[in-house]
Design brief:
Largest sheet of chain B: 3 strands, mixed
Helix content of chain A: under 10%
Number of helices of chain A: 4
Radius of gyration of chain B: 19 Å
Structural class of chain B: mainly alpha
Shape of chain B: globular
Distance between the termini of chain A: 35 Å
Number of strands of chain B: 5
Strand order of the largest sheet of chain B: 1-3-2
Largest sheet of chain A: 5 strands, mixed
Shape of chain A: globular
Structural class of chain A: mainly beta
Strand content of chain A: 35-45%
Strand content of chain B: 5-15%
Strand order of the largest sheet of chain A: 3-34-35-36-37
Order of helices and strands of chain B: EEEHHHHHEEHHH
Distance between the termini of chain B: 42 Å
Radius of gyration of chain A: 22 Å
Helix content of chain B: 25-40%
Oligomer: heterodimer
Number of helices of chain B: 8
Largest interface: A-B, 33 and 27 residues
Chain lengths: 599, 252
């Protein structure tokens, strides 16, 4: 079976001689069989490839020898908040963006991670006060000699990859409106794509395209409001009839609420060069309290297919119309070509917050299947004909009423932490949660730049008591192949490799390698702090395969440690503290990069 | 830290830590508190250059009343404080029910944190909430932290420094934009000369008797007393207002 876009063919990394200038290679996405395209050993965007597969084609480290993996070097980032970022590897250099204050480090891979330079964008300190879920940053992207990333105070910045000089810096959002930026951008045809965070602050969600060459805004598409702002035009052909009609981004809200309705873009963007479409999720509607916003709240908690050239919407689909539980819709869209009913379909696979693993036709937005991959009480099944979750009406939260045993909880079956696909095992490796919650709707006052949530939440472990799980999912058979229970939410990314080893980290400080086919634990390494970062694999200047991961616990799940919160208040950190009271006993704050290889 | 000081008069250094009204040393015509004077203010530090000086802790004028705490609780939700501090356990902002206080836990510390904001992300609510609301919030925050309501009442006599503090309020605020007080930097002719305002029988172009109460109302909301007046309203924290009135009363 051909797999689309797993490998990106790059121009090639030049290491002809020590004194030769390193040619900064160019990312060119080529739809191809993952198995046949050799991995060039670099890691140029957080998700490795446009298809968001995060698969490393390197195979020196395999299930047979991974037990010998040794720490080669480590590097303290000097920052103690949640490290959700992925390192990049370009030629002989590793780049890493820290959480706020978003320092960019360039480390020399020819000299065991020696610091080449650092760049400090100095984001506004006040931006920390409008970051809902720790002051994280999920990574940078490399493009034509530049490292480009977003800063917490809603700027996008381009830095010369050779020397750390700032090339341009563009303000994209306003912290006084509650906007921050935390996601890792991607670059498509010279345009840097990224969106805002702030769904807990009543922001109006958008995705923007910025010219990589000069930092000028090329287009911006809002995810709420009139069609003209959402960039819905004649080419917009959503699959389901309920999504057709004029200005639904206005009419599916109470008067003017779309202006503060959320639908931010803080997760992942995929790109299919053949269809020339980008795919991005949209965040939760605001406030969480659903009584305040009757209607489907378009286009929040959904996914858009857009033309990357001008942002025009091609189709849209809402995972959770009129979201009741903060089922933010921003997770990764993994682009695969899969045999569905005897036919190869171009699909988008999405482990969604609401607990269903969706397979969509990525040309049309049709739901081909949706299966629960976690314990669910908030819905009773999926109506495939209409492409809709069947809500459990007895679990609808409202003002002043506490609704109990809501599963999955607000961070969902799975939050932002990206899964990884192996074309060899044909399994999707998903780090996820097993959490439930009690939720009460409370008053919500919109005051710009302050939280706009309107819910009191307490989370706790789901059935079995384990709060996390690492699952291998077969999207064709529509079932789990195997899974590993974790004490704490599995809040790190996953990395599948051609050596049939899968890597992920735990919040209680283990970096793990498991057998891609069986899930058997093959190796683990105890880090200084809990892990919520994204593992990567690369080929070093010496031709060896390396694995890298950042530790540094935090994020929403780890806020109790990163923010020093008080466990006596179970509603702390939007209710996550209730489920994480024992995390401080398992880990302290931290922040370091670790690089491993075989002896 | 400051919160631990139950008594009004405590020996804390900081003769050079200036009153909450602001730093006076850079303003011509305003007095630097002379060494030996007691210092009032939002102390952030116990570290002291020079000998210890007695310090007057600013007390919460609304402290000690259950209704104040209840009102503060409502305000805590209405102004979305709970969005960042949850029920005191914290979220975006730090926990308030633990015993760690970055910017101090006295009523005045909390008051000024609310009004001024803090660099790590605490928004400035100055101009968004009234002084009374800030004091009620401060009282509520202390209550959830299980801290005593506030310091004992201060002496009712006017502190010697009140005139100086009132002068600072005048000279550092917007008053100087319009008024003259001879011998100070305030030399504008837009509004009346106030050099001898305390000797006048009336204010507001003869429409109001010159009493402390009328002056207070006039400063806070002149339109209420004389529609169409050029005098703009001035929002002042109650302690600053009282000091300003005392200063104006000294201009005989």
């Amino acid at each position: 079976m051909m797999l689309f876009g797993v490998g990106l063919a790059f121009g090639g990394c030049s290491r002809r001689s020590a004194e030769a200038k390193v040619e900064q290679p160019q990312a060119v996405a080529v739809p191809a069989s993952a198995v046949s395209v050799p991995d060039d050993g670099q890691w140029l965007m957080a998700s490795k490839d446009y298809a968001n597969n995060r698969f490393s084609g390197l195979d020196q480290i395999n299930a047979g020898n991974v037990r010998n993996l040794k720490l080669e070097w480590s590097f303290s980032t000097g920052v103690l908040r949640g490290h959700e970022g992925a390192p990049l590897v370009v030629g002989d250099t590793m780049y890493f963006v820290t959480p706020y204050p978003n320092i960019l480090y360039a480390l020399d891979l020819k000299n065991r991670g020696a610091k080449k330079w650092e760049y400090r964008p100095k984001p506004a300190s006040a931006s920390q006060g409008v970051a809902c879920c720790d002051v994280v940053n999920r990574g940078a992207v490399y493009w034509e000699g530049k490292i480009i990333y977003n800063t917490l105070d809603a700027h996008m910045v381009a830095v010369d990859a050779a020397n750390g000089k700032e090339l341009w810096k563009t303000k994209l959002g306003d912290i006084n409106q509650g906007e921050t930026m935390t996601m890792a951008p991607i670059v498509v045809k010279g345009k840097v794509l990224a969106g805002n965070s702030g769904g807990e602050f009543g922001v109006r969600g958008w995705i923007a395209a910025v010219n990589a060459a000069d930092g000028k805004l090329a287009w911006r598409a809002y995810n709420t409001g009139p069609d003209a702002d959402v960039l819905i035009g004649p080419r917009f052909k959503p699959f389901y009839a309920r999504d057709r009609g004029k200005d639904l981004g206005v009419s599916s809200w109470p008067a003017d609420h779309w202006k503060i309705g959320g639908g931010s873009v803080w997760g992942w963007i995929s790109y299919d060069p053949e269809l020339n479409l980008i795919y991005h999720g949209t965040g939760n509607p605001g406030p969480w309290n659903p009584d305040i916003r009757p209607g489907d709240n378009k286009w929040t908690a959904g996914v858009f297919a857009r033309d990357p050239g001008n942002g025009e919407a091609i189709w849209a689909y809402q995972w959770s119309p009129h979201d009741l539980y903060d089922y933010d819709g921003i997770n990764e869209n993994v682009l695969l070509d899969l045999p569905i009913n005897g036919k190869t379909r171009k699909v988008l696979v999405r482990p969604e917050r609401n607990g269903y693993l969706y397979v969509l036709d990525r040309q049309t937005g049709e739901v081909l299947s949706a299966d629960s991959y976690v314990h669910i009480t908030t819905s009773i099944g999926f109506d495939l004909k209409n492409g809709l979750v069947l809500e459990n009406k007895s679990k609808t939260p409202s003002l002043g009423k506490t609704m109990r045993d809501l599963c999955p909880s607000a961070p969902g079956g799975k939050d932002w932490n990206p899964s990884s696909w192996s074309p060899r095992t044909r399994l999707l490796y998903i780090p996820h949660n097993n959490l439930c919650m009690d939720m009460e709707g409370v008053e919500a006052n919109y005051i710009a730049g302050t939280p706009y949530v309107g819910a009191s939440v307490k989370m706790y472990p789901g059935p079995g008591g384990n709060r996390g799980e690492f699952s291998a999912w077969d999207p064709v058979r529509r079932q789990k192949a195997w899974s590993i229970k974790e004490k704490f939410p599995a809040w790190s990314g996953a990395l599948a490799t051609a050596g049939d080893v899968v890597f992920y980290g735990t919040m209680d400080r283990d970096f793990k390698a498991v057998d891609a086919r069986s899930g058997e634990l093959l190796w683990k390494f105890r880090t200084g702090s809990g892990i919520i970062g994204q593992p990567i694999s690369f080929k070093g200047p010496d031709g060896k395969q390396y694995i890298a991961i950042a530790d540094g616990v935090g994020g929403w799940a780890g806020a109790i440690v990163a923010g020093g919160l008080d466990p006596r208040d179970e509603t702390a950190a939007l209710g996550f503290v209730g489920a994480m009271k024992d995390l401080p006993a398992a880990t302290n704050q931290g922040g370091a990069l670790y690089v491993f290889s075989l002896p | 830290m400051c919160s631990r000081f139950r008594s009004v008069w405590v020996m804390v250094c900081g003769a050079l830590l200036l009153a909450a009204g602001g730093c006076s040393s850079t303003v011509p015509g305003a007095a630097v508190p002379p060494p030996g004077n007691m210092v009032e203010g939002n102390l952030q530090s116990l570290l002291q250059p020079g000998p210890l000086r007695p310090v007057r802790l600013v007390r919460n004028p609304l402290a000690g009343d259950a209704e104040t705490v209840e009102a503060g609780k409502r305000l805590f939700n209405q102004f979305n404080c709970s969005g960042c501090h949850a029920a005191g356990g914290g979220a975006i902002g730090p926990a308030l029910i633990d015993d760690q206080w970055i910017y101090g836990s006295s009523g005045a510390n909390i008051f000024w944190t609310l009004i001024e904001g803090r660099p790590g992300g605490m928004p400035s609510y100055g101009g968004k909430i009234s002084a009374d609301q800030a004091w009620r919030l401060a009282a509520y925050v202390r209550s959830i932290a299980n801290l005593p309501a506030e310091e004992e009442p201060v002496a009712t006599s006017v502190p010697a420094s009140a005139v100086d503090r009132g002068r600072e309020v005048f000279l550092q605020g917007s008053c100087v934009m319009c008024h003259t007080i001879r011998g100070t930097v305030s030399q504008s002719r837009v509004g009346p000369d106030l050099t001898h305002v305390a000797s006048r029988k009336t204010i507001a172009a003869g429409t109001l008797t010159n009493t402390r109460g009328n002056m207070a109302g006039w400063i806070l909301n002149p339109q209420n007393l004389k529609i169409g007046t050029q005098m703009p309203p001035t929002l002042l924290e109650s302690r600053d207002l009282q000091a300003l009135l005392t200063f104006l009363e000294s201009l005989k």
